[in-house]
Amino acid sequence: MLAFLSRIQNISNPPANAIQPKETNALKFGCLGAAKITPGALVKPSTTHSGVLLYAVAARDQARADAFAHKHGFQKSYGGTTAYQDLIDDPEVEAVYNPLPNGLHFEWTMKALKGGKHVLLEKPATNTEDEARQIFSLAAQKGLVVLEAFHFRFHPSIQRMKAILDSNELGAIKSITAGLTAPQGTAQPDDIRWMYELGGGSTMDPGSYPINFVRYLAAPHKPKTVVSASAVPYTSAPQHKQVDRKFTATLDFEHDILVDVFADLDEPRFLGMLPRIPKLKATVRCEGGTVEIFNFLIPHFYHYITVSPTGKTSRVEKAYRFADGSKGEEWWTTYRYQLEAFVDKVRGREPQTWLDPEDTIDNMKWIEAIYAKDGFGSRPHSEYVP
Ligand SMILES: NC(=O)C1=CN([C@@H]2O[C@H](COP(=O)(O)OP(=O)(O)OC[C@H]3O[C@@H](n4cnc5c(N)ncnc54)[C@H](OP(=O)(O)O)[C@@H]3O)[C@@H](O)[C@H]2O)C=CC1
Ligand SMILES: O=C1OC[C@@H](O)[C@H](O)[C@H]1O
């Protein structure tokens, strides 16, 4: 209990000795949009990374950009209709953080790459597999780093779960179930997550995590087909015809692994009254037992991994730091671990972990395959022509 409270305290207020002065060559970040996720995903983690400088933010409205810069400590703000491009054109900006709506990820990541910037790109990378491929092709041509911000993958607990499976302690994987749900009202009706043109939908938003996670856990075995999939629209209004509130899908992976994934971005109240507790679990059934993780999304707050070998006593594991001494603190968030890796990669150092281009491209491929199977169809391809 004490460890939990101390972790929560340190997550919200990192210890004073962890806040180091910035290096003279700290990576200068420019952020596109004054997005809700930016404080948690970049601003806070940057306070304990001496190699990261919050240099500029751009928003479509100058006052909004100024207020965001002032509140979060960015040195510069760009506002107005040309703000995003102005930020990219700023020669001081070295890396761009792109937390725009999904449907704008492609356009602005391509523009940032054209401008010679590395990109930390929010998930899901794009609306389509083809767009993700184009991004990584341009990045390779330019020698630039692009990372799809699946932050949870950088946390020790997630890697521990994978290591248990890879150790073969429980034998071959037979099936996996993973899902993510959010209680009704988490995303308000005007949220970008409900807008088809902006790449909305449950499979794109919470669903992209379990889809990524099951692929990681089963690797090197890959999905072969979507056996079945169904989805329910957010509302019956015409504009939500292709916007899934929830979905469920069964995928057949190589090596006879059967995988169930699901997500719900607006799970209705129980009996119309009680808010639902979010589901954040993944369960892997192997020949010789099961492994389950609770809270794969934000394990830095709290998580547990239950390992249950058949016929033997179960054990519970937790991993807030890497057992091999790799860099990190008990209270580092998934985003802080991710930022460490991103900067290492940009600086030519070996990151503790990485998401390869093929990983991102495949995630988009299987998101699209699920949408094809449940009849909701892919999100629209960007109209931006590179
Ligand atoms: N890694 C994680 O844990 C999380 C990742 N995300 C991802 O981050 C991205 C942003 O999510 P979130 O922060 O919740 O979103 P917000 O709605 O807060 O931010 C989106 C930003 O996009 C800009 N924008 C540009 N064009 C439009 C438009 N046509 N309509 C609406 N906004 C526009 C706005 O910028 P401006 O300020 O210029 O007006 C706004 O600040 C998504 O891709 C999402 O999937 C979200 C939450 C958690
Ligand atoms: O990235 C995210 O993480 C958690 C989800 O509930 C949220 O909608 C999403 O954007």
From TrEMBL:
Keywords: Oxidoreductase
An example molecular function term from Gene Ontology annotations: D-xylose 1-dehydrogenase (NADP+) activity
GFO/IDH/MocA-like oxidoreductase domain span: 158-268
Residue span, Gfo/Idh/MocA-like oxidoreductase N-terminal domain: 28-148
Pfam families membership: GFO_IDH_MocA (PF01408), GFO_IDH_MocA_C3 (PF22725)
Catalytic activity: D-xylose + NADP(+) = D-xylono-1,5-lactone + NADPH + H(+)
E.C. designation(s): 1.1.1.179
InterPro entries: Gfo/Idh/MocA-like_OxRdtase_N, Gfo/Idh/MocA_domain, GFO_IDH_MocA-like_dom, NAD(P)-bd_dom_sf
Domain of life (superkingdom): Eukaryota
Family of the protein in this entry: Belongs to the Gfo/Idh/MocA family.
Protein name from the UniProt record: D-xylose 1-dehydrogenase (NADP(+), D-xylono-1,5-lactone-forming)
The species this protein was found in: Marasmius oreades (fairy-ring Marasmius)
